[in-house]
TrEMBL record:
One of its GO terms (molecular function) is carbonate dehydratase activity. The lineage of its organism: Bacteria, Candidatus Woeseibacteriota. This is Carbonic anhydrase. InterPro entries: Carbonic_anhydrase_sf, Pro_CA_2. It holds the Pfam family Pro_CA_2.
Amino acid sequence: MVHTCDALVVCCIDFRFQKHIREFTDKNLSGKTFDLVGFAGSSKDLKTVMKQLGISVRLHEIKEIYLIHHENCGAYGEESTFTRHSQDLVKARSAIFAKYPDLSVYLYYLHLDGEFEKVF
């Protein structure tokens, strides 16, 4: 039995942001199916994310990945700044494109107030 989905969403485990992430996926992935994984620091541990991405590509033939970091991340501690998160998100996108050049990669920084800021 083939079971494919459209996307993989990678976010942090922080409970404070789960409502916002649900609202984001309801709005931006409406009508689509997606795998959802949560890691402390989201894609901070890029090796682990790449492993999960590989599984999602292989088993579910995803075409998109959404990487979501957030403000005030405990996994980053004092380094939890917009600049640091943006750098890590861009680094993750480069690693993903190097291995999966046909994937669409979307990067977001989630503020405490629930606002999603696109990272380029």
